[in-house]
Amino acid sequence: MSLTTPYEPSSSLDQSQAPAPAAAAADQTAVPLYTPEFAANPHWFYAEMRAKFGSLVPVQLSPGIAATLVIGYRAAVQINNDSQRFRADPRIWEKNIPADCPVLPMLQYRPNALRSAGLAHERYRKASVDSIGGIDLYGIHLEIEQMAIPQINTFCMEGKADLLAQYALPVTFAYLNAMVGCPADIGQQVAQGMAMMFEGTNAGEGSALFAHALSELVNLKRSEPDDDVTTRLLAHSANLTDEELVQQLVTIYGAGIEPLTNLIANTVLLILTDERFSGPNASTTRDALNELLFKDPPLANFGITYPAQPSKVEGVWLAPNQPVVTSMAACNNDPAIAGAYNGNNSHLAWGTGPHACPAQDVAYSVAHNAIDQLFDAVPDIQLACPSDQLTWRPGPFHRSLAALPVVFPPSRTLF
Predict the structure, then answer these.
(1) What are the phi and psi torsion angles at 257 (to 5°)?
(2) Bridge partners (DSSP) listed for residue 68
(3) Is residue 217 within 8 Å of 229, Cβ to Cβ?
(4) How far apart are CA 76 and CA 334, in angstroms?
(5) What value, to the nearest 5°, has the Cα angle with vertex 79 and ends 73 and 83?
(6) In contact, 182 and 218? CB cutoff 8 Å
(7) Is residue 117 helix, strand or coil?
(8) What is the C-alpha to C-alpha distance for residues 320 and 399, in angstroms, rounded to an integer?
């Protein structure tokens, strides 16, 4: 494998010389993030990018869609904590993007905290944080137990399973539905639409399905309120419109289904393939989760911002209103911070700055409890194939297995 000719940043440019958006789009050195090759071995690509480009890399999120990928830890912290220069509102950028662009549904403007700036962001962020803050973290253990055991019962007597499709996804799905008060039929549409958006396959159709399902949920909770996130959003002092309510739920589900499913599945894979997590003196589930979040986060490339004007970072000019994407995976593994940050919680898996994930404590607890429930019920799990034969799904944003096949001694169902 090889990358194209290195991009040569210039430290002598002034703002009048900063590259125009058209120049960025025409950059022949841009690295495609959407290929099966990238999905199969992203850390090889990150290392090659670092050697050839430094901390800021010209990439393509889909064919013809240019962006800058931030792979330097310090550059990422600087950018994501400077909301004046690097804004999350994409509306100027998307004016020139084709409607059928496969990554547009993931990047386009939405009236929610993830895709807004300034006072609008503050309003949406407070509504989301307050509504999520009503979740009982101490009750998650019992909730996950009640969701995990019936799911384990569907395969424990078989002696084999795909832990992605038969465990990680349905448990995540069940918890998120309960968290927002969503019935299973509406939730299924949400999950299908979200998967289509992350993969960039029929993404426009997926986005429409996603939004329609969440509109149904808002209407349902207005007539049948309960102790859930959607009801709290409806009652919040921000006085969100129906469209704004739907879009806050877009953020919650978008940050939940794929990333949380992948956090569970990928941590299980780490436990199954690393001898440090087996035997009488094995490291804990918490150790495995923390390592996974640091070394191979499930949402690998996201944290998208758009420079408000030509901006210079580490000697590289970033064009105005063009996507700047943070690679949490590459930044966490930046050799420049090796030893200074490893082994603690300063990783960027949850993002950083004003757009950092407001539900990280919830997600961590769900993953921790789901993994513990699985290994308590089925302790002798082994991969059904060599780990290098597993397939990773293409897509510029996620780090997601296509399947996680395992075998184990069949056991009776649980009560």
Answers:
(1) -60, -65
(2) 58, 324
(3) no
(4) 11
(5) 150
(6) no
(7) coil
(8) 28
3-state SS assignment for residue 131 = helix
Query: Regarding beta strands 324-327 and 65-70, do their DSSP bridges make them parallel or antiparallel, or are they unpaired?
Result: parallel
In 133-241, which residue ranges form alpha helices assigned H by DSSP? 140-153, 169-180, 184-199, 203-223, 229-235
Q: How far apart are CA 202 and CA 102, in angstroms?
A: 7
Q: What is the pLDDT confidence band of residue 342, given thresholds at 50, 70 and 90?
A: low
Taking the CA of residue 345 as centre, how many other CA atoms within 13 Å lie in the half-sphere pointing to its CB?
7
What type of residue sits at position 115?
R
Q: Please count the residues of the chain.
A: 415
Interior/surface letters 111-120, b for 16+ CB within 10 angstroms, e for the rest = bbbbbbbeee
Cα separation, 213 vs 140, in Å, equals: 25
Instruction: Note whether 33 and 59 are within 8 A (CB).
Output: yes
What's the Cα-to-Cα distance from 257 to each of 122, 253, 346, rounded to whole Å?
A: 24, 6, 23
Q: Residue 175 phi/psi, 5° resolution?
A: -70, -45
pTM of the model: 0.89
| Whether the predicted pLDDT of 4 surpasses 70 | no
Amino acid letter, 166:
Q
Q: Token digits for 403? A: 């399947």
DSSP-derived secondary structure for 300-349 = -EEEEEEESS-EEETTEEE-TTS-EEEEHHHHHT-GGGTTTTTTSS--ST
Neighbours of 22 (CB within 10 A): 10
Name the range with the highest mean pLDDT among 131-135, 180-184, 187-191. 131-135
| Per-residue pLDDT at 310 exceeds 60 | yes
